[in-house]
């Protein structure tokens, strides 16, 4: 199991979670199809709903522009990359993540 951070704009909250496989990623962010956004540190990856803009998701997480210049629709799950295509424990804390979030925004 890998340690991850879940950013949930619907509650809103930032909390630690555990991830075993891609099914866990799907459950945590509430989707069938996800995509990733690599953090500029080259180590961390944010998983988001790939269909978030077309499936009625109303809220998005807005990170600082150096993380990603557009709001990311729905829940965001942050894991580290093991350098070989697998997941590793997220080394960021909830406070680290909070520091790079500009806010929760409405998509519509």
**Percent helix:** 10-25%
Q: Look at the structure and give the mean pLDDT.
A: 95
Task: Report strand %.
Answer: 35-45%
Structural class: mainly beta
Question: How would you characterize the largest beta sheet?
Answer: 6 strands, antiparallel
- Could you list the spans in which at least 5 consecutive residues all have pLDDT below 50? none
Terminal residue distance: 36 Å
Rounded to an integer in angstroms, the radius of gyration calculated over CA atoms is 13 Å
The beta-strand count equals 9
Judging from the principal axes of the Cα atoms, what is the shape?
globular
Q: Give me the strand/helix succession.
A: EEHEEEEEEHE
Q: What number of structural domains do the residues give?
A: 1
Kindly report the oligomeric state of this protein. Answer: single chain
Number of helical segments with 4 or more residues: 2
Q: If you had to describe this structure to a student in words, what would you say it looks like?
A:
With 108 residues, the chain is mainly β. It has one domain. The protein has two helices and nine strands. The protein has helices spanning 22-29, 94-99; strands at 2-8, 13-19, 34-38, 44-49, 59-63, 72-73, 76-81, 87-88, 101-106. Strands 1, 2, 3, 4, 7 and 8 form a six-stranded antiparallel β-sheet that branches. It has a three-stranded antiparallel β-sheet with strand order 6-5-9. A hairpin with a 4-residue loop joins strand 1 (2-8) and strand 2. The radius of gyration is 13 Å and the shape is globular. The model has no long low-confidence stretch (mean pLDDT 95).
């Amino acid at each position: 199991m890998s340690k991850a951070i879940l950013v949930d704009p619907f509650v809103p909250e930032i909390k630690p979670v555990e991830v075993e496989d891609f099914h866990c990623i799907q459950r945590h962010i509430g989707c069938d199809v996800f995509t990733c956004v690599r953090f500029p540190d080259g180590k961390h990856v944010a998983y988001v709903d790939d269909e978030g803009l077309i499936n009625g998701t109303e809220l998005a997480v807005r990170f600082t522009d150096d993380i990603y210049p557009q709001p990311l629709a729905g829940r965001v799950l942050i894991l580290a990359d093991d350098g070989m295509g697998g997941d590793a424990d997220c080394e960021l804390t909830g406070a680290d993540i909070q520091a790079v979030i500009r806010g929760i925004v409405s998509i519509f």
